[in-house]
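For reproducibility, we list the full input for the calcium ion complex.
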Amino acid sequence: MPDTQPAQRPLHVVVLAAGKGTRMRSSVPKVMHPFAGVPMLGRVLDTVSRLTPARTHVVYGHGAEMVRATFADVGAHWVLQAEQLGTGHAVKQTISNVPDAALVLVVYGDVPLVRAAILEALVTAADGGLAILTAVLDDPTGYGRIIRNQVGAVRGVVEEKDATPVQATIREVNTGFLAAPASLLGPWLSRLDNKNAQGEFYLTDVVGLAAGDGILVTTQEAKDIWEIRGVNSRAELAELERHYQRCQAEALMDAGVSIADPDRFDVRGGAVTAGRDSHFDINVIIEGPARFGERVTIGANSVIKRTEIGDDVVIHPNCVIEDAVIGANSIVGPFARIRPGTRLDDRVHVGNFVEIKNSELAVGSKVNHLSYIGDSSIGRDVNVGAGVITCNYDGANKYRTIIEDGVFVGSDCQLIAPVSIGKGATVGAGSTITGDVPPDTLALARARQQHVSHWRRPRKKKN
Ligand code: UD1
Ligand code: CA
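The corresponding predicted structure, in tokenized form, follows.
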């Protein structure tokens, strides 16, 4: 190829997402089914956005309201295909919105693992004609087959349901992804018909039209077949998800992280990074973006979402941590729940059956047993005893609790917010604190112990 200039044409991406996905047997449209915690279509849109297209057109139809509501803030051109008459019909819905000078890339919304690099290669290959993304599969069942002539030139794509027995043995398949100049694609689309086994307007028929017009059809072969696999059933969805999860685990292991069982480890949502010699026990689920320092230990059955965890932290088993920051050398759990807006500084200890929400705990503080800490600021080296509750909610409004450095709160206290406990103060066990406690004092707010002698407990009455 003499021309090595990158394509200067504006790129318009058309994402096909209108199909029902009959074989999913679901009331939810296929592209809305979650893949690694994100609707399949969301992943595809994210990948497409990396090509920085001039415009992205999303053709939607089945479950229209749900699709629009979920992606309300995605700045795409949403095109309703009220009746799903085939992939060619789908692209046709928006081709009039694409300028002639543009290059069109068609992407299927049910192929969650496709990567930006291969799409870029397809776009580059399409500058002079039609480029289609292909793959060679051991088992081509379900895919359109690539038809070539004696000298190997592509002549067309035949859908499985239309294939002769001989054509069905072809292992080179169409992935559905293609790219072409809009000036060529538009006229091809208007020439499509639905005279085929499924009575649909096949996008894949443009390949035969291009070949017939003497336009060069180039193939871009995907070597990693996972990248082009479409989801048609729940079993295929699960198979692709397991493959993806295995890849996530392998990437982390390659970076020096131990994973007790890669088949019982899941990364969902955004990216996850972890430092060397960190260790994830079985059944850990991480929702990214999340960052783990070095030598972090995560116990079994923990769920960690969008959280940053410092070096040498130990998370004991069965913790749920969400939208939080956990400082180096801290220890959390077992059975702790850390809710959004929590910031634990270094060397903080949070023990079993403790819930913390929207609160900061400074260096060295401890809340070790059965507590609720909400909307609180806790200073350094504070000890919060067992069963302490910050009463942050009066049924209508929320208030903050301030606990300054070095405070000791005895067991089973209620701190009625808004309230503050001054530096170095002590709160006696069992106290209900309603007023601010001055620094370095002992606050007691409980009844003095009384003894009633010869006390007799009530007896059961006889009828
Ligand atoms: C399609 C290809 C086939 C290819 C396979 C790869 C056609 C005719 N066939 O077949 O060659 O091997 O993908 O996975 O294109 N869609 C719409 N509107 C419609 C119909 C479909 O938006 O009217 C969307 C679907 O939501 C889906 C995508 O297009 O995201 C593919 O549709 P699907 O019915 O799954 O096509 P296949 O039969 O798998
Ligand atoms: Ca499909």
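The chain has eight helices and 39 strands. The mean pLDDT is 96. Both points were considered when choosing residues for closer inspection.
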